[in-house]
Queue: 4 jobs
Job 1
Amino acid sequence: MRYRRLGSSSVKVSEVALGGWLTQGRKLDAHATTKLVHAAFDVGINFFDTADVYANGEAEKALGVAIRSLKREDLFIATKCFFPMSDSPNDQGLSRKHIVESVNHSLKRLGIETIDLMQFHRFDPETPFEEIVRAIDDLVRAGKVHYWGVSCWTGGQIKEICDTAKDWLCTKPISNQPPYNMLDRHIEQEIIPTSLSCGVSQVVFSPLAQGVLTGKYKPGEPLPEGSRGSDSSSNQWMGRLLSEANLVKVQKIGAIASEFGCTTGQFALAWCLRQPNVSSVIMGASTAEQVKENAVAGVVEIPESAWQRVEEILAS
């Protein structure tokens, strides 16, 4: 496993992180989550990402159980807040009240004293930037949070929150968590250039395009039984990803991956990591075998000529 600095900080995170959006506390109970987290830790992963809203708090609880027997200093734990956790009008958004209470609740569910990376899950147009940065800065100074970042914010929003933090002499964000993969490259146009100028790096989710870039979905064939694509409870964001044109491209890319002894999934993760502004790719996994297979993506050596061939396929 290799490690990269996160934004302008000197903290280092594994190039491959383990996420728990659709698995921990939902598909996997605490025992299964523990086995998965320990398998990840054993291959060098130190970055574990979750959120309060994942399985309505159960994902954080499962992760908390999983890390109890691991040395806390060896881990980098990230969570998020923004989305409603109840019907209360103040139990959502990025008000000072909700940020502070969310951090306290997450600390309790995770069973830790400090959150390594607190992320704001979405932009909140109702809360002034000053309120956001002063609230999180107070939590950093109180020792409840080490670093903070955002998720799915635009380049303009990232710049404004960084400028506001600077103006108020507050701790600046160091990361943004957007979707990024071969089939979704929107962050390359504005978000990455702006982030670079602000000292913010990307921690990307959906690097495998929700499983499409593993190559398991074949053009002209039914969706595999038991896959996310065939699960109506979790495939609502997969519409265009499963287009026939995309599936054909993925098969061609898979052929290139095999030339270098890679699975299509490993190759897709390595493609994301070719981008210097990406500090880590968050993989979802439900088995130790999946963790071990994808964890090697950071050490795969792919020549630039291969990436050029991939560009030609994606542009076709």
Note: DSSP finds ten helices and ten strands in the chain.
Job 2
Amino acid sequence: MTMATVNAANETAEKTDLEPLRRNVPFLLLWSGSAVSALGTSVSTFAYPLLVLSLTGSPLRAGLVAFLATLPSIILQLPAGALVDRLNRRSLMLVCDLGRAAVLGSIAATVLSGHFWFAHVAAAALVEGALSVPHRLCSQAAVRNVVPDRHLHTAYAQNETRDRAALMLGAPLGGTLFAVSRWMPFLLDAASYLVSAISLLFIRVPFRVDETAPQPEGVRESMAHLAQGVRWINRQPFIRTAVLLVGASNLLFQALSLVVIAKLTAAEVSAADIGYVMAAAGVGGTLGALAAPRLLRHMPLRVLVPAANWAWALLIPLVAICDQLVVLGLLLALIVFVGPLWNIGVDVHRLALTPDELQGRVSAAAALIESGTIPLGALGGGLLADALTGRQAVLALAAGMALTALVATLSPAVRRHVETP
């Protein structure tokens, strides 16, 4: 990075530090482009299994596509993190957006022309998932460089709100578009990635502090470079504990989602009503993200971490004994409401402490631990739903959450945590 670029970046940082977040043009461009692409991704994620099921009638093949779409988020996290810290982050995001637009456009084109090849759809899901991993890590790391520290909680709250709203709206929009024509959800997603790429072209603020840092050479040095994110987390007792607790809770929540759906299906609740119940959870998450900045001002992390886990441990058993759909939806909304408080508070703390040159690798290491348990949760939820009644399965998960809450309460790293400015 040249001296002129550094000076320009410093001038931009000083200017944005004095402006409210709603006038921070780089952040608004980054947020709006990501919002459109997140909605498109949610739409196509819902449409993938519909397309495969409608044209093959095979649930196994639909499950395989879903598996391939999520597989990169596990196996590519650490390599993608190293890539994010090695390359120009904005350019890497552009490549990912254009690549995903091409892949989704190819599905729309083949379905529109009356053709379907399962291998093509499976490969497209895998490639889209692979390109989404570095894009997400770049976007997360970029926020810290386009937003002053005093606005980080608000910025990440808006990101969380964006993602929760996209998940909430994606399923009904995807289903509506698919009902009109099978290719429309995929064309919308392709267009959303192009919108994201265009928004990036107008952002002039660098997404890294120093883009001229020396890079590792050779296999051994590259492997050490890759592991630096894991080692950094391991040296931070509070962050290490928080990441492990998130992994445990994600496992339990993934299992809970499947168990609730199985419980409602066994009670002969219609698919539409099940969708409304799960949508209530999305509403709770959106409201939690909106409320997070104000609530986090009055809640230290050493209080938030055990409090969130105990809230979940107390609410989940109520799901086991609830048979009314409206009340069940409200319970799920309350459970999910707590999630954004945890995500925003802990993530902002981690991102604020992480050196900029390690942002990608640390975020990747954290995501690997936090999200790597989700497939296990899906498998465990299926086993529980198969072996136990719905009520018994939910109570078993509640016991697991109570154990997690106890660990959070007794952890010295959590109890002794001191807030950083």
Note: The chain has two domains: 3-215, 227-415.
Job 3
Amino acid sequence: MLLERIVSAGLAHYSYLVGDKNLALVIDPKRDVDEYVRMADEAGMRIAFVLETHRNEDYFVGSMELAARTGAEVWHADGQWDYQYGHAVTAGQRWKVGRLEIEALATPGHTPGSMSYLLRDPAEIPWMLFCGDALFAGEVGRIDLLGGDLAAENAGQLYESLFSRILPLGDEVILCPAHGSGSVCGESIAERLWTSIGIERKHNARLQAGSKEQFVAFILQSQPDRPPYFRRMEKVNLEGRPLLGALSSPRPLDARSFLALFEKHNAQILDTRQELAYAAAHVPGSQSIWLDGLASFAGWFLSYDRPILLVGEGNLVENISVILLRLGFDDIAGFLAGGMLSWHMSGLESDSIRTQTVQELCRQLDEGERVWILDVRFDSELAREGRIENSQHIPITAIAERMHEVPRDREVVIFCGSGMRSMVAASYLKAQGWKRLCVVLGGMAGWRSIKCPLKR
């Protein structure tokens, strides 16, 4: 028997490989499918089926790539939409892999045709539920993807799916959601790596609602921001395009060739180094997104319409390109060979961003200096942690649409939880023409450590 959960780092996306005897299936595959093929081959199994729980919004699904590699049948949910590949799943449909059986359960709400898949063991005991984005550890699926006008209706459907179809399966059934903590598909997914219906029934705050009306009102109170790249993912995941060799490594470019490509093709430069390295010296006009934050923020700050040039550290270029490809950024034109050292050795100019410590900012405020502080944390962080008095708040994901609120005629001191998102915001503003920017190192973590005052 084979049962593997495959985690896509950064995206907090979970896919699953299930097999028995000589057959296997994959649920919600990522775009780079080598791992599934290798695991099944090592177990002596053929991947016969690919099942999708819903039309995915946050990553490029790999169903057609896997089908092209293995000959597997692809079955997609949300049959009401115009898919250009595979077959539409119907509720009650079953698949056999060896002694195991999987049954499709209709669990709409996150999307109108979302499906969950109930796995029964060889004794036909309900064992696991692959629930897609219907239910997570500590959270439920978002209901805003079809627009605000339908959010209440979707929340009502999700209530019926959870309370009438999933919870009655029994507390002992293991839940296998499509995402874990850190995903943009849920506001506060818990860090439980594995969970069950019983654990969620008892500890998931969303499931404590006493009625459908209370549940809907609770869900509508707060929904996370919707990344702009979701629209593109919704489109390409109806088309199901295979990779067609797009996973080849980006080509190395010397500094002069890198600059020439940037100027000729109006390319965008992505720098994934840590905030201190970027602050000290970076290619003018580049966008800073640190590597561990790339999956979360690339869709907010990068364009699909322009080629991407990479600046990174060490031998991480392939890791960077894989994350981008999972998000549908295929046009990676190359990377700066030798990094910023080669850039400077070629005699090219670099730019920098001023930084300061929390002690320095606290001293300025204590001495009565007028400091324009831009806090780019999320609303939930402000509510939980407090804020610096008189600071201005624009969440990092709203910078592009609200940058007109940021003054250009005075220094802007940018503040977040640690300094990482502050550098993302600073690099974006600098590329748009802001000149007097300063990033606070350590952010709220450092501020609290030295007991500077906070406003609740």
Note: The CA atoms of residues 174 and 196 lie 4 Å apart.
Job 4
Amino acid sequence: MGKRIGALCMALLLWMSFSVVGFAQETPVTQARDGVVRIIGEDANGRLYHSGSGFAVGVPGQKVDTFVTNNHVIAPFSKVYVVLDYVGEGGTWIEASVLKTWASQSPDLAILSIQTPVDAWTPLPLMSASALEPTQDVYALGFPGVADVLSDNAQQRVPSTKEDVTITKGIVSKTKISYNNTDTIQTDVEINGGNSGGPLITEDGYVVGINTVGIQNQAGATFGVNGAIYVDYAMAALEELGIDYSTAPTTPVSDTPETASSQAPASSQQGAAQPVVESPSRGGSSWVMVGGVGAVLAVVLVGGAVAVSRRKKAPAGPNQNSPVSKTLPVRSSELCLKGVSGPFAQRSFPIQEGVTIGRDPARCGIVFPGEAPGVSALHCEIRKEGSQFTITDLGSTYGTFFMDGAKLSPHVPYPLKPGQQFYLGDTQNCFQVLL
């Protein structure tokens, strides 16, 4: 009898477990995918590029027209779109205008707006990063380019629906470091090119940071050391623009900085660390912007109450359109060079098939001024060979170098990988590779 009762109890437990699984609901983290967007950039020639990720902000229950991303995600492009479903033939996305950004890219933040609010996304609640604790679980949500490679027909379609959002998990390694004179959360959450531009979230679905940078070695391998700038900068910018947004119930809106124009919401500018990205590689490693194919986290509040900052809505920008269908092929694997130091510092150059760099304007696509130290008239060349980009020194006087000090042999092509830095003759003429 006892065995029979035990068997019945076991069967009941199994039935209950299957029932629970069958009726399991989404978590705040998985529901946060409703607020994440892929961002596409369009250059002056009409070519499209998967640039990064972003997330929606606003009032719960209302349509969305405002998005947050990194400035470096949108900087190289003449037009920017948020994607409704996927990029490719028949795909639909919406042109956005820039409400606010910072020319200095400090903070590396941009607020975007579309003309006609839509209900395709859910606005995500924001929480001051000052509430974080070391070892706290956090999640990154976005559209890393490496995940696109796993999709069939990745060259024709770039999947961009809620179900296509990639989720990675980690912990808060340090609650605050200074990166580019900006308060930044250090995490071990895995992010890659394409994740840039949106928030890091807690397990309760609150956005606390915007994934921006990561550490990679010269071979492109990651170290689990990544940075997300404080979402407090976005909160302050939204306040300044008069845009409504939701916050975590325990985070008073008054705790956000008075102005997002300040360089850091919680630390003095005096004694702030210099931007790591400006420094030479340390031990064969370097900070890289995870954009060009950028980083995003999004959070959505499930259930509970939210606080809402009520402000008069800022007027829409002039370059906004209603949803439109686009059939231009996206170039999700194109290269972008970002100036790290020298005359092109903080400037980005999308590279389609190749470019020559030097001082001769008749032969070079990226032209240095005549007084640039160490740069020859025809110095080096970037070329696309199949799906691989290479760099070749063209017999320059002072040489072309990777940041680990390795000098390129003249007229020999070397492969370029995401995150690599190289310089022309002098470390003051440094570029970084973004893919």
Note: The longest strand covers residues 166-179.
